[in-house]
């Protein structure tokens, strides 16, 4: 499916409607302090040149960012591309946050795809607007358009030296027919002013003075705050409620029930009891006084330790074959030497620093939402469904997100706010506490993967079996799913890049007992942990240095197509012609990252102490990332000494934000590898806050380095691909240091973390 | 009850056990101080109470009577505290949610230690979580701000 926008001219009223600027109340997105917000001037004659670009008569330009900002810098990156092709002066650009609207194309800020999906579109939007400004100048001067060139926020007529600022051309340009896409003249890369160059992040100045507005920060004078006690176990509902003590508390306005309904969970609210109060503190306190008896469900028997132990047994049994090349059985039977290993990753929670929050105002035929959401169109659909409205009757204002990582693309918390606002007939802000967030997430799946390999007489890997078992994200949308889905295998398992002639991929049964969701890099987490750990095990098994062994295992430069028979490789939704699985790029990253490490360094394997390096390389979201980690282990205590990242992400539009995403991915990866574990007992999450779901702290954060390789390849994913290789690079380093192979995360089950 | 926030006396009518976090956010609409955990684990709500870094989520309103409360909104008059400038120079924030608390902890550190070592920074900042992983830049920005401060004094 094409994701390209048709470039269209929109009138001012529609622009204001789309961006919410004329709506009164909150104006989100006026963030460049150096510029006058263009909409401040009433009656300003503006040129709305297309869906994304408006040139104002005061010479400022509004560029819409239709994707959600959650720390990846997209409110800078996308407008930066538009501004470059437009020949705009960045200092005169206002970034405007787009409302939820399907005409923007997908707004689901997920899957590391904002730049890769919209890079071409944004260039076209900028070039189209630039062309219209040039043509407007040509008409005014009565000269051929070819003699008029936009440069630095103005159009110049070369032969006569005449010059008109964008603002002076805005109104006339808006009357020019939108040029055909194929007539657009795009810049060559040596003409870029902003793409690939350092550009200040637009929201930073507001963030450092406490002015940046997040979902938790929304306020209306007539609103109520809701805090909700939710069913601790999936599918459970209220049997009995005694809310008499809570009702007596001063400041409690109402107590309302929410009904979660039947499975699948979808993005419906969980069953719960909402306290509605005038302030957050009262709502939180009153909640503690609720006495609720919950119904038992089939998931009450779920215990995550037992569940993983059971998967560790069944994963050794033959599963469902997904792809099969050559003859693995024969290769194993003829192998001179064999090796196998099983890897385990627990449930993980997103733990965004900002717990979910949403505010809703509902009338009979309209709903307005303010929230930290990754996918405003999904909000429109789900809220409309819950209220019996049409999606276009739901207006969604996207605030800044205090972290997303996939959690905030699930709008269950927004639906809660909408339902409560309708009941109360006034605005309601639903505030999730940290405990709510940790206990009622859409969790990253607990997983077990099993690998077997055989070596032929020459010591080459001749057979490779990989078998995965984890509850599928599909179970969140469809009851009864009990195997990993092929789309989850596509994230680092089916596209395993090794040149092994006989290889098979299988799945094993794993039922879901909680809401499973996508977390930054999704099943690449367990797939890369398995593939990169097992390859390292085979290297040590055959006595070769890991980087040399890996280069041979990856084999010749080639493009891989993992599809076979009924199994069709998804490639993150992109064509393999544009984004091939390219072993040359993977090997390039491997060679570069290996130079950062001393892979000959060995610790004292008999004592279990020492210093060692580990590397891991992995392709995900169409990018190639290698991580090298040095660890020190003394007396059972682990310290990460340093960590290096080499990334090939294609063209890096905003190099500093690519660096920062890689830095963040390393720290995110260390949190999950070292200490990330959600436990379930009797169907309910037993963790509750940062004391028992810890994240990496600054004193545990080692020196980091990032090298982003120069590339003219199309821009690929950035937000997620740094995460997957982190965990195996650490456990590989621990093996080099100590001879101890950690196959079960988190590492703090096996070593103390310094 | 009367409290003093960023130099201004403010009259508030709340349960005296209400934590300052909610007084600031819900009553005074000073939303720069963030709610991250409610248990003192994450530091997103860090403010200064008579100059000392304090977790607003654990501090009852009554405890602040007679003391000077400083929030991120009052850290500097024009957003030009050396740390705020250094934060921009190093492009520290990603999502930005924890950064008010990070800045308030860092400001309290520099107020008592003009040239902190790495381990001083670790010690002062370890109570402030950042899920985006901006720690290396926080460390670098604190050092830049410390150098700028020292330069002015010299």
UniProtKB/TrEMBL annotation, chain A:
User: Which SUPFAM superfamilies does the UniProt record give?
Assistant: Molybdenum cofactor-binding domain
**Signal peptide span:** 1-40
- Natural source organism: Microbulbifer halophilus
Annotated Pfam families: MoCoBD_1, MoCoBD_2
The record's listing under Gene3D superfamilies reads: Aldehyde oxidase/xanthine dehydrogenase, a/b hammerhead, Aldehyde oxidase/xanthine dehydrogenase, molybdopterin binding domain
Q: What is this protein called?
A: Molybdopterin cofactor-binding domain-containing protein
List, for all copies, the residue spans of the domain called Aldehyde oxidase/xanthine dehydrogenase a/b hammerhead: 209-298
What the entry lists under PROSITE patterns is as follows:
TAT
Instruction: Write the record's keywords in alphabetical order, separated by commas.
Output: Signal
Query: Which NCBIfam families does the record associate with it?
Result: TAT_signal_seq
Q: Which PANTHER family match?
A: ALDEHYDE DEHYDROGENASE (PTHR47495), BLR6219 PROTEIN (PTHR47495:SF3)
Automatic annotation (TrEMBL), chain B:
Keyword check for NAD: no
Specify the superkingdom: Bacteria
Q: InterPro entries recorded for this chain?
A: 2Fe-2S-bd, 2Fe-2S-bd_dom_sf, 2Fe-2S_ferredoxin-like_sf, 2Fe-2S_ferredoxin-type, 2Fe2S_fd_BS, Beta-grasp_dom_sf, Diverse_Oxidoreductases
Q: Extract the Pfam families matched here.
A: Fer2, Fer2_2
Q: Which residues form the 2Fe-2S ferredoxin-type domain?
A: 1-75
Q: Which UniProt keywords apply?
A: 2Fe-2S, Iron, Iron-sulfur, Metal-binding, Oxidoreductase
Q: Provide the protein name.
A: (2Fe-2S)-binding protein
The species is Microbulbifer halophilus
């Amino acid at each position: 499916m094409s994701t390209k926008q048709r470039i269209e001219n929109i009138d001012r009223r529609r622009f204001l409607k789309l961006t919410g600027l004329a709506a009164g109340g909150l104006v989100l997105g006026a963030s460049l302090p150096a510029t006058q917000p263009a909409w401040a001037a009433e009656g300003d004659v503006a040129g709305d040149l297309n869906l994304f670009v408006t040139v104002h008569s005061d010479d400022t330009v509004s560029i819409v960012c239709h994707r959600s900002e959650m720390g990846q810098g997209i409110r800078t990156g996308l407008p930066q591309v538009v501004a470059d092709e437009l020949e705009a002066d960045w200092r005169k650009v206002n970034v405007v946050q787009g409302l939820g609207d399907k005409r923007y194309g997908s707004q689901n800020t997920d899957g590391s795809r904002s730049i890769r999906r919209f890079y071409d579109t944004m260039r076209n939007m900028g070039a189209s607007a630039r062309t219209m400004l040039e043509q407007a100048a040509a008409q005014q001067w009565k000269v051929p358009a070819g003699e008029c060139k936009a440069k630095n926020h103005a159009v110049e007529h070369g032969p006569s030296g005449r010059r008109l600022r964008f603002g002076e051309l805005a109104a006339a340009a808006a009357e020019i027919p939108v040029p055909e896409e194929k007539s657009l003249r795009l810049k060559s890369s040596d003409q870029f002013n902003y793409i690939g160059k350092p550009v200040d992040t637009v929201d930073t100045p507001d963030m450092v003075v406490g002015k940046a507005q997040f979902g938790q920060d929304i306020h209306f004078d007539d609103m109520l705050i809701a805090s909700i006690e939710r069913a601790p176990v999936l599918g459970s509902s209220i049997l009995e409620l005694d809310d008499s003590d809570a009702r007596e508390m001063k400041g409690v306005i109402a107590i309302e029930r929410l009904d979660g309904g039947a499975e699948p969970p979808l993005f419906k609210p969980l069953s719960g009891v909402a306290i509605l109060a005038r302030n957050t503190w009262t709502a939180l306190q009153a909640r503690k006084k609720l006495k609720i008896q919950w119904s038992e469900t089939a998931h009450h028997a779920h215990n995550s330790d037992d569940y993983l132990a059971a998967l560790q047994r069944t994963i050794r049994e033959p599963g469902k074959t997904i792809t099969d090349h050559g003859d693995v059985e024969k290769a194993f039977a003829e192998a001179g030497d064999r090796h196998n290993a099983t890897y385990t990753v627990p449930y993980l929670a997103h733990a965004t620093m900002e717990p979910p929050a949403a505010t809703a105002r509902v009338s009979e035929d309209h709903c307005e939402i303010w929230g930290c959401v990754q996918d405003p169109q999904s909000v429109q659909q789900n809220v409309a469904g819950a209220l019996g409205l049409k999606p276009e009757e739901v207006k969604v204002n996207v605030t800044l997100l205090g972290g997303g990582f996939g959690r905030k693309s699930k709008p269950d918390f927004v639906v809660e706010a909408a339902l409560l606002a309708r009941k109360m007939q006034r605005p309601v802000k639903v505030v999730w506490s940290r405990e709510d967030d940790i206990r009622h997430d859409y969790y990253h799946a607990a997983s077990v993967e099993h690998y077997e390999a055989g070596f032929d007489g020459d010591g080459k890997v001749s057979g490779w079996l990989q078998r995965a078992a984890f509850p599928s994200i599909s179970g969140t949308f469809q009851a009864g799913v009990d195997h990993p889905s092929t789309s989850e295998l596509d994230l680092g398992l089916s596209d395993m890049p090794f040149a092994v002639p006989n290889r098979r991929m299988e799945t094993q049964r794993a039922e879901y007992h909680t809401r499973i969701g996508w977390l930054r890099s999704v099943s690449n987490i367990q797939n890369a942990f398995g593939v990169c750990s097992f390859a390292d095990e085979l290297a040590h098994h055959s006595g070769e240095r890991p980087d040399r062994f890996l280069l041979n295992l990856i084999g010749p430069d080639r493009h891989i197509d993992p599809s076979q028979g009924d199994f069709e490789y998804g490639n993150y939704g992109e064509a393999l012609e544009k984004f091939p699985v390219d072993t040359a790029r993977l090997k390039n990253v491997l060679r570069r990252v290996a130079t950062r490490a001393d892979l000959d360094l060995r610790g004292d394997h008999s004592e279990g102490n020492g210093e060692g390096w580990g590397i891991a390389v992995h392709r995900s979201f169409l990018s190639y990332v290698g991580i090298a980690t040095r660890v020190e282990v003394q007396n059972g205590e682990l310290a990460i000494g340093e960590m290096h990242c080499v990334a090939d992400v294609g063209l890096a539009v905003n190099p500093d934000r690519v660096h920062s995403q890689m830095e963040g991915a390393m720290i995110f990866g260390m949190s999950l590898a070292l200490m990330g574990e959600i436990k379930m007992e009797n169907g309910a999450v037993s963790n509750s806050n940062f004391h028992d779901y810890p994240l990496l702290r600054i004193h545990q954060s080692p020196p980091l380095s990032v090298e982003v390789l120069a590339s003219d390849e199309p821009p690929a994913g950035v937000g997620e691909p740094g995460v997957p290789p982190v965990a195996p690079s650490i456990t590989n380093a621990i093996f080099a240091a100590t001879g101890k192979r950690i196959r079960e995360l988190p590492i703090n089950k096996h070593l103390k973390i310094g | 009850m009367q409290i003093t926030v960023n130099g201004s006396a403010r009259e508030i009518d709340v349960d005296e056990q209400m934590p300052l976090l909610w007084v600031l956010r819900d009553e005074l609409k000073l939303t720069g101080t963030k709610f991250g955990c409610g248990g003192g684990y994450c530091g997103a709500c860090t403010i200064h109470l008579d100059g000392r870094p304090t977790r607003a989520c654990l501090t009852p309103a009554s405890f602040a009577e007679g003391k000077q409360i400083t929030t991120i909104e009052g850290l500097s008059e024009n957003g030009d505290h050396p740390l705020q400038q250094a934060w921009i120079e190093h492009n520290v924030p990603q999502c930005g949610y924890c950064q008010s608390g990070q800045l308030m902890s860092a400001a309290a550190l520099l107020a008592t230690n003009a040239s902190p070592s790495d381990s001083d920074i670790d010690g002062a900042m370890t109570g402030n979580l950042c899920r985006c992983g901006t720690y290396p830049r926080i460390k670098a920005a604190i050092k830049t701000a410390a150098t700028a401060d020292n330069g002015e004094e010299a």
